[in-house]
Amino acid sequence: MQLKDSSIFRNGGSFKRNVSFDKEDVHAAASKLYEERFTSFFPKQVLAGLKVVFYEHASVSRDIGPRILRALGAEVISIKRSDVFVAIDTEAINNTTELANWIFEHDADALVTTDGDGDRAMVVDEKGQIVQGDLLGILAAEYLHADSVSAPISCNTALEKCGKFKYIRRTRIGSPYVIESMYNAINEGKKRVVGFEANGGFMTATAITNPDTGQTMKALPTRDALLPILAFLSLCRKTGKTASELVETLPPRFTYSGLLRDFPVELAAEFLSPFKEKGFAEKLFHTYFGAVHAVDFTDGVRITFASDDIVHLRPSGNAPEFRCYTEASSKKRAVDNHRTAMEIVKEWKIKHTRH
């Protein structure tokens, strides 16, 4: 694609020589458009009556996020601003006690934040419990009345079990696959198409009109963190439920994940290859998890047992690591199953790397 001569960019995407512009003006214009995206879409004062703690740290959303929340009526308490980068992994929160204490200290209805570059959301409910990113995605999609939802195969099966969506598409792990799936849904005639990931990132591939305001929000088919936060909190107000009560409206499915480091891709491929043989998964796991109901190879190996427990094994896509995801009807069972599955993988690795 050829860019116009007036563009400040070369065809390859880099800046032309001697380009100058007012960065603050560009920033202000972009911020205004982003804020108006939400303040026009959601009902006025939709969050009135909610007290929300915004954990600022070093996130790029630490100023615009609270502004939007306040514009929609929430009382916002901004805390813990940092001039030093703070690594926030929304899928592996390691300061849960601290987050819960901030909720209790301020007697808040929720704590929210994003990761550093502002494309992954995190919500903590009024009881100090993390709202998992895929559950957040389900509830945001519900608020938006989505008719097609795309999500990675690793996301919570409450997506299917809740019965809220007509079309559900499972993909490989990674936002490019979710985006591709959303466009496939559009090509098949779906009108309110969204997607999300377990990390709290949320995407819209079609324009969506809010029936409560009549206002339309344009598509944004790239990860956004503030939309799922705002949709979740708005659904709390709309239903009259607390954050924890809203999560409890979903089927009780709990997930857990972790990884083994120093696990070369070649070794992972060797471990996973036999699962394509009929009966192998049953042979390896039956003693610990019972009968195998189904095996899915969308991304790695995802085994669903007759108990409805799930063990999902896959190599990392960008590091010599081996990941394991589990899902069960209780948090304890998901954690215990994860520990068992990881022990099986560890034992296999020791046996096959012993010289």
Task: Note down, in words, how this protein is organized.
The protein is an alpha+beta fold. The chain folds into 2 domains: 25-247, Alpha-D-Glucose-1,6-Bisphosphate, Chain A, domain 3; 254-353, Alpha-D-phosphohexomutase, C-terminal domain (TATA-Binding Protein). It has helices at residues 23-39, 64-71, 96-105, 133-143, 158-161, 175-187, 226-239, 243-247, 265-272, 280-289, 331-353; strands spanning 51-57, 75-81, 110-114, 121-125, 130-131, 148-152, 167-171, 193-196, 202-204, 208-209, 216-217, 220-224, 254-260, 292-296, 301-305, 310-315, 322-328. The chain has a 5-stranded mixed beta sheet, sandwiched between helices. It has a 5-stranded mixed beta sheet with strand order 7-6-8-9-12, with helices on both faces. It starts with 22 loop residues before the first helix and ends with a helix.
Features:
single chain, 355 residues, alpha+beta, Alpha-D-Glucose-1,6-Bisphosphate, Chain A, domain 3, TATA-Binding Protein, 5-stranded mixed β-sheet, 11 helices, 35% helix, 23% strand
Short description:
The chain is α+β, with helices and mostly antiparallel strands. It folds into two domains: 25-247, Alpha-D-Glucose-1,6-Bisphosphate, subunit A, domain 3 (Alpha-D-Glucose-1,6-Bisphosphate, Chain A, domain 3); 254-353, Alpha-D-phosphohexomutase, C-terminal domain (TATA-Binding Protein, 2-Layer Sandwich). The chain is built from eleven helices and 17 strands.
Tally of domains: 2
Cα gyration radius (Å): 22 Å
Low-confidence stretches: none
Q: Describe the biggest sheet?
A: 5 strands, mixed
Span between N and C termini? 55 Å
Given the helix and strand composition, which structural class is it?
alpha+beta
Supply the number of helical segments.
11
The shape is globular
Mean pLDDT: 93
The total count of strands amounts to 17
Helix content: 25-40%
CATH superfamily of the largest domain: Alpha-D-Glucose-1,6-Bisphosphate, subunit A, domain 3
**Beta-strand percent range:** 15-25%
